[in-house]
């Protein structure tokens, strides 16, 4: 290379922020890790009976066990987050799958998304009413179609064609959720406030998981029944890649729960990942900056779980509590509900 070309090469290398002829530093890979959440909100110990608290903790533990068993056996992070979220979708305690809340029209309309941090592949479904486990349909969209998002009847037909379990909508009926909806609906009918029509549930039961496998690959998954008494066709942040769900090996994996409109407007999941990738802030600082500052500044609330390739993770929320837990290689599992 002559002197003039060498000068140009060095100038370009400096311009894009790297040293010429110096390979990018490899990011260290941390221990296999799984982090989960089951929603954030006004979750206070005095409002939850001891037996119900025990039931929440039991299911959170089961979700951790299910996902971590896959990681410990050499499985992929994508499979681990699906396993964990499926357990949470099957428990009516959580606002996802069988425990999904009711929309204004009296339906259970569910959303879910998954993303593979190793290749940025992603899949999601929204507004589905007959798919037993929406997270499994989202995975089918990611792996068996050329698309990222499918909605409504089309998503249901595709899921059925791919062998994903389909059930009658009555499968999702839960008496506790129905009573909650009736209460919210009555309040909305007697109020002139638009916000009362989609009143906060005191807690957001959206579920999610992020995982790091032994190969250094990250994945994120999120599933939700949305917001009680939501308008027809309303979609929250959970199935929107970059808003409620995101994973990239070069930054981190994120799954969110909260008032979806604010998380969409702020592109919360991707904002945290971008901050991690392009600044010198650590993962906790990135999550805190977005959830504890930006979301609150707009008037929103909720939380996130995040995980990077080095095994660092956060369980950050700006509410009174968040159902959450984590497990790492050679460590005991830990589950939590309240701010502690």
Automatic annotation (TrEMBL):
Query: By its UniProt entry, which InterPro entries does this protein fall under?
Result: Ntn_hydrolases_N, Peptidase_T2
A GO molecular function term, named singly, is: peptidase activity
Where, in this chain's numbering, is substrate bound? 234-237, 257-260
Mitochondrion among keywords:
no
Gene Ontology biological-process entries? proteolysis
The record's keywords, sorted A to Z, are: Autocatalytic cleavage, Hydrolase, Protease
Record: active site: 206 (nucleophile)
Cleavage, annotated site positions: 205-206
Q: Does the keyword Protease apply?
A: yes
* Protein name (Swiss-Prot/TrEMBL): Isoaspartyl peptidase
